[in-house]
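Known limitations

Structure tokens in this collection are predictions and should be treated as such. Users comparing against experimental data should check residue numbering before alignment. To illustrate the layout, the record for Transcriptional regulator, DeoR family is reproduced below. The input appears on top and the generated tokens appear beneath it.
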Amino acid sequence: MTAQQRLNQVLELVIERGNVAIAEVSQALGVSTATARRDLNLLAEQRLVTRTHGGAAVLGTGYELPLQYKIVRQADAKQAIARAVADLVAPGDSVGLNGGTTTTEVARTLGSSERLGSTGAAAGVTIVTNALNIAYELSVREHVKIVVTGGVPRSQSYELVGPLVGSSLRDFSLDLAVLGVDGLTARFGATTVHEGEAEASRQIAAVAGRVVVATDATKLGRTTFARICPLERIDVLVTDVAPAPELAADLAAAGVDVVIA
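Generated tokens:
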């Protein structure tokens, strides 16, 4: 287990229990109390937890974790979702990607796809993104043309936000937009935790022929702060587990095709 993986597990433990003692962390992870104390101190220095006497507690329900602490969550599901999304992309397509762990996996899958990288006039794929980490990872892929929007980066997610996102997308026409979300319900549609990221995702969707929401089942039936778009704006939902019957009925009524990875 790497240090980053261990920190993720410590953070998950604090979030799950609300507060933990050093001895609990030590026992749960099979590490020394000195290591547990050092990990809690590091997370507290990064303002991810609050240090307490003999342990640590969560900061609050509305706190957004930085991207690097979300990467290992539902990793297998996100990789399966990414493969299913890649099947929706044809050689020569232009694809908009917002930021997040699931869309990062989608980007990696597109970047390593032999089908999209095959020779021919229509080979390759154009990726338009507001996520700096996605642009960086795909910049070395010869069959991928990268276009990065304007905007101001958020350190939590590496996403560019602000009015420059929309202005830089205004003259584009994308085949599809692939959006990662933090919540999906019938009442509020696709949502995320930050209003700037929601607006950026709306701008990407606005210039796309089809909108694909790629999210694991933990986000289904959940609502977060900022709306991206209603269900009716979504063409395809790619997820890892079939939605609950009520949500499935609402998705069908809205004309959303559901793909189970």
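For this record: The domain at 3-63 is CATH 1.10.10.10 (Arc Repressor Mutant, subunit A). DSSP finds nine helices and 15 strands in the chain. Please report discrepancies through the issue tracker.
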